[in-house]
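CORE FACILITY INTAKE
Project code: CF-77B
Contact: R.S. (postdoc)
Sample description: multi-component assembly, two entities in total
Requested service: structural model of the whole complex
Turnaround: standard
Below are the sequence entries exactly as provided by the requester. Do not edit them.
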Amino acid sequence: MNLQDFLSMSGYAAYVWPCYGLTAAVLIWMVWSARSQWRREIVRAQRRVLSQQQTGQQEVQS
Amino acid sequence: MSSTSSQTPLPTPEGRAIARAPSRWLWFHKLGSPPYAYGLASRLRPWFMGATVILMLVGVFGGLVLAPPDYQQKDAFRIIYVHVPAAIMSLQVYMAMAIAAAVGLIWRMKLAHAFAAACAPVGAWFTVLALATGSIYGKPMWGTWWEWDPRLTSELILLFLYLGYMALRESFDDIPRADRASAILAIVGVVNVPIVKYSVVWWNSLHQAPTISKIDTPSITLSMGWPLYTLVLAFMLYFAAVMCDRLRSEILRRERNASWLMENIDRS
């Protein structure tokens, strides 16, 4: 089997490759977006903790 | 006859504590605690991810190169290696989401609600993939991109259930309220799951009969089947890996305990 035959998918290349490409794109994007969302939530949680500490100190001072 | 396990514990406070410690439900309480689940997700994610990458590469190589072409569909049948796992996951993720929502509603378990909320976008994307690859598969096989056929229509309703669940959550500012309302929608939507699954059996569908669900007489030979089984397993592990990140996001969003956040969020 040569590469040309493989890529042509017995004439169904226009259907097979878009399916694999689309699936790969969605799966990779979902991993990336879940990861970056988690990082954003860490930053948000840190900010929340900081603001809680600051308001706590202000209450103590006043 | 003198078995030590059947002896009644000593009536001292220490004895009672020891006898009650290994509760059958301990794992449930442990898993239900957000800090434990957060740590577990952090530890498990690299393993899920590694196994996913290996199994996906093996499965795709098997499906595209090693499996022989179908006698009727030629190489077009190779679309099933991405279409079937995506379609299976679209249903399994929905069941996981609905069961988690029910657990959250019945036992008021916050972590179960967090899990259900984390499931929805992943399930929606699996449904989009199943519909899109199915549509591309349908064009050369049936001569049409879309048909209002029972299987296709019920799968489209599944997508709307996921989108409705997400939209309903978005409409609440208060997380516990969003949890309760969306849980009811998720549980009611379960009726659609058997309709999707058995639509090709119950009605005359354009869609072909199940490929692997008939375990005793699978309609696929082993040389074509093993890449499919491998990829179904790979998609399940992929879901687990993505859920590790998504569940941790949900836990962070809900956690108000500052000291716990300080201790845990710096870990990667």
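Facility notes:
- The mean pLDDT of chain B is 85.
- The CA atoms of residues 85 and 232 of chain B lie 5 Å apart.
Invoice: internal transfer
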